[in-house]
């Protein structure tokens, strides 16, 4: 066995330990008290190992959240496409509600939001690597519905993506109400059918 | 002239100077570099004057944004109610787009968002003094439309408020696209009419 593969394996293990440590630590102490020192101690590596790969605690946190969301790929999973747009969006919105309501996810995501608001470079990286590919996956599902004649061909796809997904994200951000499957369903009914026709009467 | 009114006037003038200084300073340096010292220097008051009224730079910033939004009252202005729901919501959404696109407003609001994400007490104060009264003003306009038979009586008013207003806020937060009157109109068409019927065809 040559030396290289061993070093690469060690490197990958250190990297995984750092990201895991950052994710859990920020959930415990919040972003303000997160530090490279504490991440290093939790991961059992030296500070310099972290600085070799990432310039700031925000960058480590970004990578930790990214890897948890996208796994080893650089692309988000496509949205389900069973041919039933309403059922597929319901599946995604309900899953989003439950995920955001999970404290394990909530705190790292809030911390990442702070990091991005404070660091324009990180915000750009988020837009390029997360927001834009995720948005494209959503647009692709809506395009499929357009081809199936379920949505108008002239629909503004970006406004449509915002209308479907933004209300859940804002309610989470401002803790403005419960994140439940019922809320997901109420939103979807409004977005698909329109306010004027919403509700059972 | 007694001593009290003079002291009260001085106090009010100091308070206004502090809030004005905080608002502009955060626009120049960002929240991370905002400090009570710098606010005091800009306002021409002593640090202790600020600490007498507010516990943190986040709390000063909150008050500065609050006073700019609500003026001297503790209540937001009601939404326009001309009897034409669509026209009234268009007025409000277009104005919101232009306001959020204004760098003078954008930076202090981003700073306040960071402050609230980092400080749970401030987030609670925001919910009580800003989010809830503003939401009630929006619900009131929708209730008026319900009484006029323009919206279903069974509509989930909170989900409806989110569906109408959250997409603009979320696009602003993530700088996910331009904040324009055209975007406001596209959102409103989707929210009122429903995705399925949206667009000219």
From TrEMBL, chains A, B:
Domain HTH tetR-type per the UniProt entry, residue ranges: 12-72
Q: Which residues form a coiled coil?
A: none
Q: Which Pfam families match?
A: TetR_C_11 (PF16859), TetR_N (PF00440)
UniProt KW Metal-binding keyword: no
The residue ranges marked as DNA-binding region are 35-54
Q: Which InterPro entries match?
A: Homeodomain-like_sf (IPR009057), HTH-type_TetR-like_transc_reg (IPR050109), HTH_TetR (IPR001647), Tet_transcr_reg_TetR-rel_C_sf (IPR036271), TetR_C (IPR011075)
Write the record's keywords in alphabetical order, separated by commas: DNA-binding, Transcription, Transcription regulation
Taxonomic superkingdom: Bacteria
This chain belongs to which protein, by name?
Answer: TetR/AcrR family transcriptional regulator
Q: What is the lineage of its organism?
A: Bacteria, Bacillati, Actinomycetota, Actinomycetes, Kitasatosporales
């Amino acid at each position: 066995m040559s030396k290289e593969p061993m070093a690469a394996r060690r490197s990958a293990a250190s990297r995984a330990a750092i990201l895991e440590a950052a994710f859990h630590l920020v959930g415990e102490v919040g972003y303000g008290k997160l530090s490279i020192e504490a991440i290093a101690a939790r991961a059992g590596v030296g500070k310099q190992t972290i600085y070799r790969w990432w310039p700031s605690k925000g960058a480590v946190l970004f990578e930790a959240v990214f890897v948890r969301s996208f796994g080893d790929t650089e692309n988000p999973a496509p949205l389900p496409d069973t041919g039933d747009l309403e059922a597929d969006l319901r599946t995604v919105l309900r899953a989003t509600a439950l995920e955001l309501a999970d404290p394990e996810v909530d705190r790292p995501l809030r911390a990442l939001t702070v990091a991005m608001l404070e660091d324009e470079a990180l915000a750009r990286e988020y837009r390029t690597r997360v927001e834009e590919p995720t948005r494209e996956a959503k647009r692709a599902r809506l395009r499929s519905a357009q081809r199936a004649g379920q949505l108008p061909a002239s629909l503004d796809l970006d406004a449509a993506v915002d209308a479907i997904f933004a209300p859940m994200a804002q309610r989470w951000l401002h803790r403005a109400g419960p994140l439940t499957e019922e809320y997901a369903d109420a939103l979807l009914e409004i977005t698909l059918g329109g306010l004027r026709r919403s509700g059972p009467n």
